[in-house]
Design goal:
heterodimer, A: about 110 residues, mainly beta, five-stranded antiparallel beta sheet, globular, B: about 110 residues, seven-stranded mixed beta sheet, four-stranded antiparallel beta sheet
């Protein structure tokens, strides 16, 4: 089992819809969770992070964390073609400050 | 702007050659990392350094070595390149005492080993 798992996609949604991206992790002691966006050929950039169970909203983005189920998700409301990218989930485990990344989910938003 | 830079941006080399990828940062961060990215495998950690005198192996260090020449510089070497080291390589930095543990990535180096 991979430490951080994501569906590779592509996830295709129409413009204006809600895109839901999911991530599961294996280390129950993981402390913090990050969503990075990566456009093709570019470097990853941080969109959101979440530490506590529940929802965290930032503009069109909402991160959701359920530590009991070892599950973190990213919702993108009113999806735009410019949101088309690969979204990487990253987990900060209990030991040290290292990040473990999932394989990423490719999102395609169609006009 | 404080930044993370990588050189070269693209490199094509032959099997058996020694290659060095360089990373510099002006962010004043103490921690630096090298990752490789292969399609569908996300980012995998090769080496990391929490300060100039600290070097640690990551998940996939075999075939690689690093040097932390200064707080702002972290180089990755492939002693004898092989085709399965063809990948996109990213350098990243972070601040150890930051309230939010965020890593900042350089633009990447695309390496092709023939």
């Amino acid at each position: 089992q991979k430490e951080v798992e994501q569906n590779s996609g592509p996830l295709s949604v129409p413009e204006g819809a809600i895109a839901s991206l999911n991530c599961t992790y294996s280390d129950r002691g993981s402390q913090s969770f990050f969503w990075y966006r990566q456009y093709s050929g570019k470097s990853p950039e941080l969109i959101m992070f979440i530490y506590s169970n529940g929802d965290k909203e930032d503009g069109r983005f909402t991160a959701q964390l359920n530590k009991a189920s070892q599950y973190v998700s990213l919702l993108i409301r009113d999806s735009q073609p410019s949101d088309s990218a690969t979204y990487l989930c990253a987990v900060n485990k209990r030991a040290g400050n290292m990040l473990t990344f999932g394989g990423g989910t490719r999102l395609m938003v169609k006009p | 702007d404080a930044d993370v830079t990588q050189t070269p941006r693209n490199r094509i080399t032959k099997t058996g050659k020694r290659i060095m990828l360089e990373c510099s940062q002006t962010k004043g961060h103490d921690r630096m990392y090298w990752y490789r990215q292969d399609p569908g495998l996300g980012l995998r950690l090769i080496y990391y350094s929490f300060d100039v005198k600290d070097i640690n192996k990551g998940e996939i260090s075999d075939g690689y070595s690093v040097s932390r020449q200064a707080q702002a510089k972290f180089s990755l070497s492939l002693e004898s390149a092989i085709p399965n080291q063809t990948a996109l390589y990213f350098c990243a930095t972070s601040l150890g005492l930051a309230a939010v543990y965020e890593q900042f990535f350089g633009p990447g180096t695309r390496l092709t080993v023939l």
